[in-house]
Each structure stands twice: as C-alpha cells, then as structure tokens.
Fold these 4 entries.
Entry 1:
Amino acid sequence: MKYRKELFKTKDPFDTKYSNMRFFRAAKENFAFQYKNCAEYRKIADSFVSPDDIKSYEDIDKIPCLPTLVFKNHKLFSTKKYKMPITATSSGTKGKYSEVGFDTGGLWCGLKMVLKISKLRQLFSLRPCRYIIFGYKPHKGNRTAVTKTAFGATFFAPAISRTYALKFSDGKYTADLEGIINAVVKYGKSKIPLRFMGFPSYTYFFLKTMDERGIYLKLNKHSKIMLGGGWKQFYTEQVDKSTLYALAKKVLGISDENIVEFFGAVEHPILYCDCKNHHFHVPAYSRVIIRDVDTLEPLGYGKTGLVNLITPMIKATPILSVMTDDLGVLHDGKECGCGLSSPYLEIIGRVGLSDIKTCAAGAADILSEVKL
C-alpha cells in the first residue's frame, strides 16, 4: 500500500485540495486490492466498473459504494483473519452487526490521523483528569467500535479514573445514571479537570436533570465535553447545539470552546472532529459525496442527500466506499470562517428505514428503563 502511506503522510490533515492526486492513487490502489482479494466485492464491482476504469480523481465517485447494511448482513474480508490485529463491530441488534477487520498498516495510518487531527483541537494534555463516560464499560465480550472509541478517547489525557454510565454485570449491561450524577458532584469539588465522553443525547439528558434538580458546578477550566455518535433514535428530543452548549455552561461551567464533537462509523474509521465553529470539515484522508436519494447521482454543495464516505485507510475489509443511512449536506469550507478550507459535512438526520439500527440502539434500550 505505497500510495496509502503517502496519503497519510500529508502534513496538513485538512488539505483536501492539494492531496487530490495522493487520494486518487491511494483509492485506486485500494480498489485494485479489494477487487483482487475479495470475491464477493469483485462480483459487485463487475456489475459497475473495474479498477482500470478509475483513471483520474474525477472517477472516484464511480467506485462501487456498499451500503452499511451489506456489512450487517454479510462478513466481507480481503485478508486472512490472522493478519488482522484488531476487529471491531457495530453494536447491532437482533444478531445483525457489521464486523470490520483492521490491518497493521491501516492502524498505523489511523494513529497518524488521530495525532494530527486531535492536535488541532488541543485534545492532548499531560494534565491528569477524571473521565465520565456515557457509554459501555469495556469487557472481554464487547468488541463494539463505539466502546473501543470511547475508551480510546480516555488516552488524550492521563486518566485518574473512568466512570461509566453502563456497567456489565450478570451477563448484561445496566444503567447507573444516579451513580454518574453522584460522581460528578463528588469530583466537581476538586481541582482536577473532568472530561465527559459520550452521545450528545445522553449528555443533554444528564445536564437537563442536573438543571432540574438545581445542581450547578464550576468545574476546572480545563474540563472538556467530547460528544460522539449523534442523537440517533432520540432525534425528536434533539436540541440545537447552542441550547446544549448553553446548558453545559450553566450546569458545569464548561464553555463551548471546550466542547468537541466527533463523527464516524465502524464502516468508515476516519476521525471527523469539529472545528472551533463546530463544523465537521472533511480531512485529507477521506472524501464525502452527497448522492441523490432517488438516482444516487452526486450532488453539489448545499443539497441534501445520502452520505457516501470514501477512504483507502483499511485494506482488510472492503470499506473503501460506503453508503451510510445518514442524510447530509456538504458545504464549501470557506463558508465556515474557522480558517479551514476543506468542505464541511452537516448531518441532517437518518433515512426512515425501520430495519436500520444504530450503534446507540442497545444503550437506548437500557437507558429507557431508568427514570431520573
């Protein structure tokens, strides 16, 4: 994967203009590898295009994009499992989940990406902190990407402790949100920063409950809130970012410059980290195509459609180009005003398919049993 290495060496992680040729070469290289080594993927591709047909950067949108549902119903791999140091799954329900294998080269590329992107949002710190995680506490039977990601985020700064909202006991997860509130009140009295990590919906419900109970704290100024995973099935209760950020300031004393949001998927393991204006700029290591919901033709800036995510980061699984169940809009990066020129992605919502289950579905079932 010569060209993949070149792409992930790109110094500016948001240089999507001058990295076009590198991206094209890496994408074609990955397409050829998947085509050769995954028979199922080759059968799909043969109905549309072959690697030889991808001749320029403008041809990237012709690479077959597989719906994420394909990976929930079929296990597709392009290398032997013993060559995959790590495999991760979506949470899944009813026995359906995506399983993605990560090759060693892809993991190194991912590490370089995380270091470069996270540095821009000043997520790394040598200052110890306590983590409050609105998610699953890891255990050996949990291979979900959302759990691995949340745990991985606790290495941005040294962890004194990790407190989880969802704990595993007697073969199942149970919610302990009262324990979370008690822990935050207890830890909030010290000078040690707190870092919150989890779904924005659960973070909002926590903040709202604290507000309703009249519990207000002034946390250390280095405290942060890191949000990831979207609102999922709680979309009817979704509030705009300004409302959420104002509540965080009121309840915890955390201002919006210390609130960071992430976007990603197990089928597309690229780190999308919002800028200072809280927009998801597309990093150099991926490309985003918005497609018409009826024709699947690529759309221009400002138009709503299905979100097609492309990255040549992984070779062990044919996730080069995937079609998500998200509806989104791509904007010209110059409209943001943060200084980053790469386009930014706005997630509008999800398509209304009843059989699509999100990575938060399992957690929502557990949390719905808890009344605060």
Note: The radius of gyration is 20 Å.
Entry 2:
Amino acid sequence: MQFRKMCFISIKKPLLGLLLLPNLALADQLNQANTAWVLTSTALVLFMTIPGLSLFYAGLVRSKNVLSVLMQCFAITCIVSILWLAGVYSFIFTDGGELQKLIGGASKIFLPGINTSALIGDIPEAVYFMFQMTFAIITPALIVGAFAERMKFSAMLWFSCLWLIIVYMPICHWIWGGGWLANLGVMDFAGGIVIHVNAGVAALVAALVLGKRKGFPNTAMPPHNMTMVVTGAGMLWVGWFGFNAGSALTADGRAGMAMLATHIGAASGALTWMFIEWKRFGKPSVLGIVTGMVAGLGTITPASGFVGPGGALIIGIVAGIVCFYATQYVKRVLKIDDSLDVFPVHGVGGIVGSLLTGVFAASSLGGLGLQDGISIIDQVSIQALAILVTASWSAFFSFLILKFLDKWIGLRVTPDEEVEGLDNALHEETGYLDL
C-alpha cells in the first residue's frame, strides 16, 4: 500500500524533508492539483491558529485577559514565521550529513536559490515551506493555554522562540525529517507526537513552574464568552481538515480518507464527552461538547492517514472518555492549574492516539496496513518509544528554558497586574468598552 511505503521509506532511503512522502520525491514535474490542495490546506492550518485557536482560547479566559491571549497567538504566528525562514525549516528538512539522524543541515537558511520552479516532489518548495510552517506556528501557540492569565508577554515571546529551536526543531526532524525515530518506523501522520504530545507535556511543565493563578482552585474562573469559544472551536474543526488531510500532500484518496477519519474522530469525541458530562452532572454543556471535539481531533491526528472510519470512530470514543477523566484528574485531584486544559486534552489525546495508531492501522482492523513483518505489538512499542522520548525531551528542556527565563527576566506578572488583568496591565487596552 502507498501508506506503508510513505511511513517506512526512511528505513531504506531517507530523503530530504519530505514528511514521510517518498512517492512525491520521485516526481520532477509540477502537479497543479496537488499544489492547489496543499495551498488550500496551508490556509486552513493557519486559519486554525488565527483566528480559530485565538478565539477558542480568548473566550475561555476571563474578560480582563481576552486581548492578552489574542495578542500572544498573533505574536507567536509572526515570530515563528521569521524563525522558520531563518533556519528552523532548514535544520528540520534538509540533509544533515553525518548528523542526519539527529539534525538537518544549514543549506536552506533564508531559502537561498529557491525560486518559483523549485519543487519538493511535485509541489513548489515555497508551498511545502509554508505548509510545514503553519504546523510550527500552532505548536507553541497551543502551550499558551497552560499559562494564560499570568505570564509576562516578554517571557512568553522568549519561551516560544527558545522552545521552537531547542524542543520542536529536533523532535520534528527525528520524526518527519528523516531522523532516527523515522528510521525506526514511527507512525505520526499529522502531529500526534510532534505537536500534541510535545506541546501538551511542555504545557504541563509550564503550569507547574509558573504556579496557580490567584484564587485557583477555590475561585470560579468560568469562560467569559462561550459564543467566542464555540466560534473558535468551529474554526478549529474546519481548519483541522487541512491539518490532517493536507498532510497527504496529494489530492487523492489518501487525503479523502484522512479527512473522513478526522471528521469521525471529532464527532465521536464530542458526543462521548457530552454524554459522560450529561450523566455525571445532569446536563450537557456547550463547553463539554466543544472540548470533546478538540480532544477527538487531537487524538485522531497521528492516525488520520493510517486508519479507516471504524478505527477513527473507536479512537474518537476513547478520546472522549480518557481526556474527560484526565481533565478532571489534573484539575480536581492534582490541582494543577493548566488554565485551558492543554495537557489533558492535547497531551493525553496525543499519547492515546499515537498508541492506538499502531493498533488500528493494521489491515485486519480496517486500517491501511503496517509495514511487512511488523506486528501490532511491535508497532505499538515503536510508538511508545517515540512518545517517551518526545515527552522526556520536551519536559526536560521546557523546564530548563522556563527556569532560565525566570532567573533572567521573570515569568509571572506581579500580583497586582494579575488582579487588574493582563489586557490593561501589559497592553493598556481592554477588550470591552464597559470595562
């Protein structure tokens, strides 16, 4: 099967920066259909961050912090874009020579010699560059939800920059750039490990290092604007089709199956979360159904290009169950103030989805097939190793970056600024005229 070749080509012949898509590397002519689809997907993935994630997160915080969250997501989009051009792309997706297993090379820093005729497979390299950049943008933006309402804007900027280079860049290369985890045969179609496990673990560390918001957990801190939350959630759902189906880099049945799996995973995750909440608390909530949708999307992401609709349905149901109880456990038992539930939704979802990818990708379970000679147990073991390595690297270096920044410029706003709200204290603006 083509999927099988896509996932394991790095064992035989690592090619430069092709996101596990060797069939594209063999092309030498522009494919307009594929180019149009990846252009569309690129816009959809950027749409996930601005305005999707921005509105989703902004609605979840208190009204005095709404602009600070929007500002953080917007600024991350800008600064990651420049860093991507300045070398992050190159060190992920180019040949690192003798160091290829660990990191890529410097030949594409600022894209020298890249013109309109330069191709990656059968699409323009400029389009490929942009598509991969949108993934790099949303990953640190996800972490914003863990330290919302209490982190300095300057510290957030420095953390996002250092984290992208020290944490995201090597992990992305190891899995998607022909590095050592790719050579082992790890399956991560659109970022369950690279993005969701990575960002989720970093979010948990950030929440622990910064500490709780003033008043947590005794003071109620409900979302200030559920209409904004649902609007952002809807944008995330639609944008996620570019995230997952776009990762096929082709306009064909592979992309179609990934889109179908994505939609089924989101729908089943949303309904599962809603029914659990309904049974437990007596009423279904809007916040619950949209959070379940995000959990379903994050959990199906690594599997989206490898499983059939039946597998996607089961993965979505599992996502709704596991992520719901993980959220309750983190907040109510551990009392960790991961403000917007980044770790229990994205981190736990990424872990569960990545493990289940190794199960439901099997053709006997309706998937698109594992590599010849690889059993489900072997594949799950490879998935577990990649999760463990990613979580360990992300936790260790996220902790070091945060501690360094705390010593250098400080991480948290002052208690008075936190009470006042970050909108006015840091930006001298308010989201609403009556405040």
Note: Residues 169 and 316 are 29 Å apart (CA to CA).
Entry 3:
Amino acid sequence: MLHVVAMTCAVLAVQPGAGLSKAEQAAGWRLYSGADATSLWRGYKQPAFPSKGWTAADGELRISKGGGGGDLITMDQFGDVEMTFEFRLGEKANSGIMWRCTETHDATWQTGPEYQLLEDATYGAKPTDAHSCAALYDLYPPSEGKAMKPSGQWNNGRIYLRNGLVQHWLNGQKAVEAVVFDDAGNPTKEWADKIAGSKFKAYERFGVQPRGHIAIQDHGDTEIALRNVRIRDLGAPLPGEVALFNGKDLTGWKAIVPDAAKQNTKPESVWSVADGVLICKGNPVGYIRTEKDYTNFVLRLEWRFDAAKGAGNSGVLLRMVGEDKVWPRSVEAQLHSGNAGDFWNIGEFEMKTDASRLNGRNTRKTHGAERPLGAWNEYEIIVNHGEIALKVNGEELNRAWDVGELPGKICLQSEGAEIHFRNIRLVPLD
C-alpha cells in the first residue's frame, strides 16, 4: 500500500560547511562533502574520483555543464540508509540520487531507484509529475503542495530507507512514502508491480538489491551543486554502541513488577525472549530497567505490537531516578499505539516542552509516524544534556529542553498489552 503524506518535519539546522556534532557522530552520521570527499566517492565503474567534470571544494560537490565526469558513487555500500543534503540546480538542471546501486549494468539508474533532482520551473515539469523533483523517478510522484525554491537557490533533500519503508523529503515536507520491502527483505507486491509496469522491468534486479552504492547522476548538460551531504548506515552498529539487550535473556536488566507476588509469580516472568525478540506480556504492570545509570546518550530500539492481539500501551522511561514504583520519576517517551512520540512527565521531572502541545503532564507529538499495527517501528532518542529529541521511524516528533541532567536508569514498561522489542542499543555521549 502506498502512503503519500505532505507534512512539516522538524530538522536540525546545519550551517554550510559545518562539521558534525558529537551527538550526530554518535548517531552514525558521516559528512560526504567535507575535506575528504574525494576519498569517499569514485566514478561509476572507476577506481577513483573523476578527473574531470566533478569538483569537491569549499564543502560542495559540483558538476559543470558538459563536464563528462560520469556518475559518482560512494565507496561504501548500504542497505538501510539515511541521507540528508542541500542541493542547488541551474536552469533546466536534471540529475538524481540513486540508492542501492550495483555495477552490474551500464548505468547507475539501471539498478538503483532514484530521488529525482529536476529544476521543475525552467524544465517545464508539473510539481506532481512522476519525473519532477523529489519523485521516486517514474514510480511514485511527489505529493501535492510540494515546495521548491527557484533555480540558483539551495533546497533541502532527504532520503530515508529503513525496514522496507522508503521516504523522500523536500524542504522539510514528506514528498514520497512507500513500503517497498517486507520484513524478510523481499519486494512487496506493490513495489514489484510498479517495477513491472515501468521501463525498469528491462533491467535485471532493478530496485531489489539488498545493498548497494549511493550514486549522484551526471546527466550531461546540467549544473548542480550539493553541500552538507550527510549519510548514515542505519543497519550498521553505531560508533561505540553498547547493546543493552543481548537477544538471549535479561542480563543487564532488573524487573520491577509490584503485583507479581500477589499473583504468585516472579517479576521476570512478565518478560521472555524468542528469536532475538524481547516479549513483554503486559500483565502484571511494571517495567524492566537497566542496572546501570545513563545520563547523555543516543538510544535506538525497535518495537511492535502483536497485530492479532491488538493495539496497546507501553513506554520508554528516561533518566529514571528515585524509588522503584509504578510509575517512577522519569521522562517517558510514549509507546501507546497512535501516540508514539508523545512525552509524559512522571514525578514532576524538570523539563520544558512546547506550551501549545502541553496538557498537564503530556506533551503531544507534532504528527504521527507509526507504521501499521504489527509492523516494526524504530525509536531514536537523543538525550543530550538539557535536551531530549524523540524520533519515530526517522521523523522528529517531539523535543524537550531544560531537562534535569541526572544520571538514571532506562526502563521499558509493561502496561497491559503484549509488546515486542529488539535491537536495543545505546551510545554514551559522556
């Protein structure tokens, strides 16, 4: 099923030529347009950065008209990946960024789906044409209301590919969203049908590679420039990450279930592990918490509710301090179905949030980003001194500031419904 949504996305401001913060590096970002750009890119089917056409200077990657340098590809290959970039297009400029490209055919676009880069206005393209800027070229058109800046001005682009979901963003708005792979990594029927109905059906393995290069197209007589090109491998371990869940048992965690004794059961019995997945029964209510304290960190985890058992409630408690009870003093990143990305302030924890979305102890998310019930979702939670940012499936939904900077536990709630967790990992920022 295709999901196409236009909405404002909160993004971190990045100054031209700026480096990466400690938190960004911990989250896995790498700058691909900096001083070492020529060592991170090479020509398609070439061993090194092109000797003509392309230049890497002043924090920008540029190609001139008729330069003849050919397409660029990253030295590295990626499966799940996120890429953010700024781009400036000359009049009638035509280019694209391809993902999961291999060098099995004559051109990058013959294996890699494309984020189209087109100067719509001077090229004469309709904003919602499947060949216009930010389209998933020839397969999915951009959504209505796309906002693009005129020729010669800088635009912001973003590609997000994770757990089968692909998104294209343009200037803070989601332009394309589609589920192209299932949980096993196989093409969905919709994705396979899209390819079969396009010109790409002539190219073996188009759009179905599990990994590949990212490419920037040299379309010939066109001028483009890119800066602040940042890429992170969403399937790779984070730099210096600590696995909080070993995929086997509750080592490193302590179960807190006050009513367990009343029900003649052990607190740990609420939790079990199967095939690397941590399963919480939901009853009795309580939580598991880390044995160690963490103050500043980047935390990633994936969760889902059992579709057969219905929607449910849970949460991730951050900087939990004080007495073990239901519920302990902490900042909660909500996991209630339909409300993931909300904040809950527990025990009058010191923090500030957007007053327009604050109702008592609850701060509503800016918008929804959850996948359908039963699908895996991913939280990325950045707890950095006095700030906490909540991202669900790659979209920032909430932010708090002036948060009490206290070392505390990380907790996962048992709150009345079965919920599954996996890939719980953390990078300390201290």
Note: Residues 1-17 have pLDDT under 50 and may be disordered.
Entry 4:
Amino acid sequence: MRGHIFSKYIPGPEEEKGFEQLMNLFLQLLQYTNGDVAEALDWLNQLDQQHQITNDSYGMGNFIQDLKDRGYIKENPNDGTFAPTSKTNQTIRKKSLEDVFGKLKKGGKGNHATSKTGVGDELNSDRRKFSFGDSLDQIDLTASIHNAQINHGIDDFKLTEDDLEIREKDLKTQTSTVLMIDISHSMILYGEDRITPAKKVAMALAELIKTRYPKDTLDIIVFGNDAWPIEVKDLPYLQVGPYHTNTYAGLELALDILRKRKNINKQIFMITDGKPTCLKEGNGYYQNSFGLDRKIINKTLTMAAQARRLNIPITTFMIASDPYLQKFVREFTETNHGKAYYSNLNGLGDFIFEDFEKNRKKNTR
C-alpha cells in the first residue's frame, strides 16, 4: 500500500493576494506605532473587523504565521513578544522608494555621471588615438586591429602604437550627503502629521543611495533641543519629541561628519517646518519660540556661512509657508549660497529626488 506523499506548500493566488494586502497595511501601521508589532497587529485586527479585509480562506492567524515563517517578525522566547526584523526594515525602505521615487533599477557602479571624460567605469562613444599614460582597458581592440590592417596590410600583420584607438570613459563623481530631520514638537502640531512624510522621504533616499549609488555615503541626523545621528534602521520608528528647534546644533554636527568624509562632493539636505528657536548654553538652553530671535538666528547664519567656506551647499526643504519663516529661509540660503524649497507634504519627495540628482557637481580636481 502506498503511503502519503508530502511536498512543499505553495500559497495559492488568493492567499498571496491576501498576504500582500495585509502586509501593506501592516508596514504602514508599524511606522505609526514606532515598531510596536503587537500594537500594529491590534490596529490591523480592528481594521479587519470594521472593513472585512480577510475572508474564510485567509485570516489574521494565517497572516501572523506567514510573518513569522517569512522572517518579517521574530518572537522573544522569554516573554513571547514580537519585534520587526531587518528584513522588515528593508522592505519598508524599498516600499518608500517605490512610493516616492518610482521603481528605479540598480545601475552603474554606484557613481554619478558628469559631462567630462576621464578615468571612470562606463565607456562612451568618444574615440581618440592612444596617448602615453592611457589605461590598457580603454583600448578598443577591434578598432585597433582594423587600423593595423588598413595601415600595414593583411599579409604582414603588425600592430603599432599609432594603430591603437582609445574609447573614452565617463568621469564619475561620488557624493557624501547628510540628511537633517527636524523632530521638534511642531512636526505633529496643528492637526498635521509632518514627521511621517519626512521619515518616508528619508527612507526612500537611503534606499536610493544603497541601490543606485553604493559608493556614496548618507548620514542621517535628527535635531530638536540637541542633535544626534541615527541609523537607517531607526528611521521607520523615529518619534517627535517635546523639543524646540536647535538648527545650529544640527548644522554643527552635519559639518563635523562631512569633514571626516573623503569625497570631494558634499552636501546637506535639511527638512524642517520652522525657524530656529533654541541654542545650548552651558548646561542649559536658551529658547525663544516667538518671532525671529536675532541671537539664535545670527548663530545659525554663522553655521551657514561656515558651510559655504567649506564648499558645502545646504538645501532647505521648508514644510511651511508662513511669510516670516520664508524671510529666515531666504536669509539663510543667501548666506550659504544654497537652495530652498517651500514644499507641501505631498511634493517633498519629488523635490528631494530632483535636487539630489541635479546636485552632482563636476569633479574638477
């Protein structure tokens, strides 16, 4: 008598569709709960009860089991709690990249093309005669042999230096970027969530650099009363604090980081929704949230001027349109010789992507 035959279970189309639908919601909820898996699943369960997302063939129990089996959540053996894995964090970044910048293919060797020729990675259509010092991998053998046949004939073949033909390569640049994110309390005030779009854009930018420009560097810092660096894996779960806005501290830290980077091309992107309102003095803070405090503004402008002397442009993305805020941003931008955008939340990603791509400077050294 023949026994049972077991094979690997492969989910059907309906089950896979159910998982993907729940997964998209789960990833969004996970960001709102700052990485609390239990709370995100509880919210998802409430949404399911209200809107009947699941069905008899695929329910919440199946989804939770799939999250564990596919490596998206891990269980603590001591207390049974769940935590997101690195795979989940990467999935959130990839989804942010697709949502904000579109589905971009990995290409090149991780550098930024310029209009100049030189030592690079990608051959272009320009050709010239060989010169002493040219790299051997630039020699076009097919064209060089063809030149030798024309110049010396086929019967007595020989290849001389004059026959060699070079294909030019595009010069590539590498860039070091510091992304500054305002986490002051105003980023969630006035009934508008500004921190979630800022996080989403930051995650998309991080994934863009990892996939398309792996030789670039991206450092992310947050600033409130103080400033400190965070890792990419912390981005989905970043929280706003009861902070004022110490832009000076953020810029000071950003410049310290960029001084240590070896890349010639350096830049700072700053996402904020308000004016500087705070300075650290000794063991305490000098704070003023009313109007434009010249003491705070002047110290901040000093940092903008210092960045200009270091040839580091600052691009400010202001998620607000108040006239007095625009006045500060104009003064700040003129001091740094940088750029400024007054963006709504929906257009933030488009602005940053466009500027990141356009801000490739030619390596002339």
Note: The CA atoms of residues 182 and 203 lie 15 Å apart.
